[in-house]
Amino acid sequence: MQIVSYIIYLIASILFIFGIKKLGSPKTARQGNMLSSIGMLLAVVITLFDHMIITYEWIIAGLIIGSLIGSLMALKVQMTGMPQMVGLLNGFGGGASAVVALGEFFKVDTPNFEINIIITIVLSVLIGAVTFTGSFIAFGKLQGIVTGKVVKYPLQNTINVLLFVVVLAAGVFLIVDQTQIELLLGIVAVSLLLGVLLVLPIGGADMPVAVSLLNSYSGIAASMTGFVISNNMLIIAGALVGASGIILTLIMCRGMNRSLMNVVLGGWESAGAGGAAAGGGEQKPHKSIDSEELAMLFDSASSVVIVPGYGMAVAQAQHAIRDLANILESKGIKVRFAIHPVAGRMPGHMNVLLAEAQVSYDKLYALEDINDDFPNTDVVFVVGANDVVNPAARHDQASPIYGMPILNVDYSKTVIVNKRSMNVGYAGIDNELFYLDNTLMYFGDAKDAISKLVNEIKEL
Q: I need a labelling partner for 389 at 20 to 30 A (CA). Which of 148, 155, 193, 228 fits?
């Protein structure tokens, strides 16, 4: 039976690896998700045959309750709420790892673990607890329950470092004397606090990085727990999640031209600032356009690129965007979508929303695949995006976004920017794009404004 278990675990691991590989492309993402799900099903089933399981009542109850909750979330949560759900799932994963490690420690009256096992117990509890509370803070920021602004407090980094040192010191003492249960409980409490303090300073628009990093933490915690309970499948699966999460985190940081430490330690001081785009309240001259004029402009174009941003997600305008793309294509106009790697509130946020609206994957282009083609584009329609299209990133060395790769929408013949107002984006800085000669502002809620535009185009 042990040999059979190892073989099935190996098959499940292979399915996980191929699943992650297929998640790298929108065209194969569904297959990747299915392969990974089958791998997890195999792992769970074979684990249920473990000879060390004494009773199945609690396991069955957990499977039923968890399946019901998961199914309800999958059916009820809107695609615009996906970032929040991903944040929660990361937290549950980290919390589960910490609880399993604690259970392993407390299952004997007098703990006397080998040094490598007690070390992994401490690490699993530390990382799992940080992931648990950190993910809930991330959920709160994404949901609007917790402020999305950068939160600074006196001696912020010093306090975090001291708490981390306290956890490490308690871990060392626990290794020396495993009967000191209070030390382990203290590690749990401080780690839970650390999760809050580490994520709270991160601004709301940095959540793509934070969610990705927390995902990595949950994988690392699972892998540590795998060592604790001697489960090879958990070690492999956790390592895959941990490694892929770190890689994705670094990709997201590169997409903003920022270091991971810059994000983790609180990001831009001006992040999340409101107010007029002119900074000091002074309005710079800009040109606006109404739906009727815009409809005629679109009708005369031969190529259009749509750039979605977080504003599209907030307004839930993805279906209206699809309708706009469809009616333009029916008139023989070439329509494509330009996706910035950090647009939205989680990696791939825009891709997910557009996929929900049945926008073909073939029309979605990454920054590096479409940037050179903007000079050949008649009209670029920017919907709810801000910093990712700000030309200041290319030349203003004093700007906090200087050096960040942006979509070169200003190189196109005409740029239409749909926003509610002239307010600044996450970086809290003016957007030069709004005042260029080839830029027109189309004000209004994205969903309503685009629906009105579609109706105007239909009448032409």
A: 148
Q: Are strands 414-419 and 364-366 parallel, antiparallel or unpaired?
A: unpaired
* Distance, CA of 385 to CA of 300 (rounded, Å): 24
pLDDT digits over 283-337, tens only?
A: 678 899 999 999 999 999 999 999 999 889 888 899 999 999 999 999 999 999 9
DSSP state of 137: H
53 within 8 A of 182, measured Cβ to Cβ? no
Q: Phi and psi (nearest 5°) for 365?
A: -120, 135
What amino acid occupies position 103? Answer: G
How far is 41 from 54, CA to CA, in rounded Å?
A: 21
Classified as helix, coil or strand, 396 is coil
CA 32 to chain centre: 18
Tell me the torsion sign for CA atoms 273, 409, 308, 288. Answer: positive
Q: Which residues, in sequence order, are bridge partners of residue 100?
A: none
Q: Taking the CA atoms of 322, 323, 327 and 328 in sequence, report the sign of the dihedral they define.
A: negative
Catalytic residue among 206, 323, 387, 445: 387
319: left (phi over 0), alpha (psi -120 to 50) or beta: alpha
Q: How far apart are CA 219 and CA 246, in angstroms?
A: 10
How is residue 362 annotated by DSSP? G
pTM of the full predicted structure? Answer: 0.82
Q: List C-alpha distances in Å: 2 to 7, 49, 51, 191.
A: 9, 10, 10, 36
Which of 335, 249, 306, 240 is closest to 442 using CA atoms?
A: 306
Q: What percent of the chain has pLDDT over 90?
A: 55
Please name the amino acid found at residue 165: V
Facing residues of 416 across strands?
381, 440
Determine whether 109 is an active site residue: no
Q: Looking at this protein, which amino acid is placed at residue 387?
A: D
Rounded to whole angstroms, how far apart are CA atoms 430 and 391? Answer: 10
Indicate the DSSP class of residue 282: P
Residue matched to tokens 């999460």: 245
- Which pLDDT value is given to residue 32? 93
- Is 386 within 8 Å of 446 (Cβ atoms)? no
Report pLDDT digits (tens) over 172-222. Answer: 999 999 988 999 999 999 999 999 999 988 876 677 788 889 999 999 999
Q: In angstroms, how far is the first alpha carbon of the chain from the final one?
A: 71
- Residue 176, amino acid: V
Burial class of residue 433, CB neighbours in 10 A (0-12, 13-18, 19+): buried
State the number of CA atoms in the 13 A half-sphere of 141 facing the CB.
Answer: 28
